[in-house]
Specification:
580 residues; alpha+beta; Hypothetical protein af1432; four-stranded antiparallel sheet; 11 strands
Length: 580
């Protein structure tokens, strides 16, 4: 699950990065375009302004100039003294002066500048009027236009304020020679230029207002996009989590079914998971590691689905061959889960939970720190649960005894770095006293009979007698007396009547023992001998007559032995057999 969630997160972060990048680029482009548009507007205004000025100049030039009354605003041009009839009297008696095209243009620029804040200027490198002296920018541009005869424009500062500056060359026309021939110009020469400077302040202000509006819109779009992205992330995560939840429910159900195949393993995986988490928390592992360890512990025995019932459900000790077969469950668990994406983080933990620190474990015989650290924790948790749970072939250890065993086998079976943490984490664990491998339900008893019931008579066999004697100290048994009954000459009965009738006789005899005996613990041993175990003093000899009557005319005789378990200190079959 963590693997898939991480993948979704990475995709979302990538989309978020791309979306943020797009928005930032859009913002930069918007700002750039707004200020670029301000430059375009300023340039257009400069062009329009010069065209207007040149239109006035062209009109004045086409008329050879204009005579206007002499006033404070239009005094005689001192730089036109060389022109005859510069000043004349009109028929009305008014004193008139010639306003040539250049004079008209300069006057228009002055008026325009006062109204709109633009700066207009007729300029030339060969001056007729000192007022037309070029500044540094105009000097540079005039040199260029004298060669290219093309307009020039740039942004530049004038008195600390930024302007868009535009210069258009003035090409000498025939009408211009009236005033400028003495300067050596001829028709077609560039004799100067018309310069205009448009203040950028208002355009930048407008651009800023547009930029703010655009940014507000962009931020709104960005937030809307974030909402869509995170909503998509939430939905994708929910869908994935639901799919994973459904999948894991199926897997966990399968584990539960596997565990319910016998009473001991029921709950085993959950207990191992709980113990593993306690140890991992004591070692300060991350939440992610603890989650992976928990899930691995829940699934660590799923490979037992391939283990035959005859081995998995066997209550007694396993033979070497059976042990080799059951060890395969680790490999099967690994093979089942390794191809499932959501379990990629935990398959190696599961694979090595039966390794030993000294290298004597399985399946790969890994040694020491070559065993994954989370597997090392599960090794201890798995062994601890095995030690503190009743088994048919041995009694459980107390928590204290189990921890003592962990420390005794530290550096051998168990990793020495983890045992101290496990000692602290598990010391207060309370193990359910009801956990046992004894059959409880009818189905469990039926399974149990496969191993410990005599197939002919339906009563218990010698293997279960060995177990009861070994665990007689527990509250589950506490037997006090043993009755041994021998059937003599039974082999002769088989020879005479056949094995089939012999089996029928044994079965009926066992049913009679059930009727007269006050204990459910009746065993068939050594073929034709029977033993009963009782929690009180009980003498089977008291029913001798009834039993002999049952065997009348069969040729079979009976003999009896009685033992007090406590007095004779009987705790195993070897002690009992020595008394027989």
């Amino acid at each position: 699950m963590a693997y898939r969630i991480d993948f979704i997160n990475r995709v979302i972060y990538l989309i978020l990065f791309i979306w943020t990048t797009i928005i930032l680029i859009a913002s930069v482009i918007s700002i750039h375009k707004n200020y670029e548009y301000a430059n375009i507007l300023a340039k257009n205004e400069a062009i329009v302004s010069i065209k207007k000025d040149l239109a006035y100049r062209s009109w004045g030039s086409s008329h050879g100039g204009v005579y206007v009354p002499i006033t404070k605003r239009t005094p005689p041009n001192p730089y036109l003294l060389h022109i005859k009839n510069r000043d004349i009297n009109s028929t009305t008696g008014l004193q008139l002066t010639l306003m040539n095209p250049a004079y008209i243009l300069s006057q228009m620029m002055k008026e325009y500048s006062e109204f709109y804040g633009t700066k207009g200027h007729i300029t030339s490198r060969i001056l007729m009027n000192p007022k037309n002296k070029p500044d540094k920018w105009e000097e540079k541009m005039l040199k260029e236009v004298e060669v290219s005869k093309k307009t020039k424009s740039t942004k530049a500062f004038i008195d600390g304020e930024e302007y868009f500056r535009y210069l258009r060359p003035l090409v000498t026309e025939k009408s211009c020679l009236k005033c400028h021939a003495f300067q050596g110009y001829k028709e077609g020469d560039v004799r100067g230029g018309v310069s205009v400077s448009i203040p950028m302040k208002q355009y930048y202000k407008d651009a800023l207002n547009h930029t703010i509006l655009n940014i507000v819109i962009i931020i709104f779009i960005y937030i809307l996009g974030l909402f869509v992205i995170f909503f998509a992330k939430k939905r994708a995560t929910e869908i994935l989590e639901n799919k994973i939840k459904d999948y894991e429910q199926h897997i966990f159900s399968l584990v539960s079914i596997i565990e319910k195949r016998d009473s001991y393993t029921a709950g085993h995986s959950q207990r191992v998971a709980n113990y593993s988490v306690l140890i991992a928390k004591e070692m300060k592992f991350s939440i992610k590691d603890i989650d992976n360890l928990y899930r691995a512990s829940i699934l660590h025995d799923i490979g037992k689905i391939s283990t035959p019932d005859s081995i998995l459900l066997k209550p007694g000790s396993l033979t070497e061959l059976e042990y080799q077969i059951i060890k395969e469950h680790v490999v099967v668990s690994y093979e089942l889960l390794k191809s499932v994406d959501i379990y990629k983080d935990i398959v190696e933990i599961i694979r090595h939970h039966h390794e030993h620190y000294d290298g004597n474990g399985y399946p790969q015989g890994l040694k020491g720190e070559n065993i994954p650290i989370l597997s090392q924790i599960m090794i201890i948790a798995d062994a601890f649960d095995a030690m503190t749970t009743n088994r048919i072939y041995r009694a459980k250890k107390s928590v204290t005894e189990a921890i003592r065993e962990l420390n005794r086998l530290s550096s051998k079976q168990f990793p020495p770095k983890i045992v101290p943490f496990a000692t602290i984490a598990l010391k207060d664990v309370i193990v359910e006293s009801t956990i046992t491998q004894q059959p409880k339900t009818k189905i469990e008893k039926e399974r149990f009979s496969y191993f410990y019931k005599d197939q002919i008579t339906g009563i218990y066999n010698k293997s279960y007698l060995e177990f009861v004697l070994a665990n007689n100290y527990s509250q589950e048994f506490q037997m006090k007396s043993i009755n041994m009954m021998y059937l003599h000459n039974f082999s002769q009965y088989n020879k005479k009547h056949g094995w089939n009738d012999g089996d029928k006789l044994l079965k009926k005899f066992a049913e009679l023992l059930k009727e007269i005996n006050n204990s459910n613990f009746i065993f068939r041993v050594y073929g034709d001998d029977f033993i009963t175990l009782n929690r009180e003093k009980y003498y089977l000899l008291d029913y001798r007559l009834k039993l002999e009557n049952f065997l009348l005319d069969t040729g079979i005789s009976l003999s009896f032995r009685y033992f007090d378990i406590k007095r004779e200190k009987i705790s195993d079959m070897e002690t009992l057999e020595n008394l027989l």
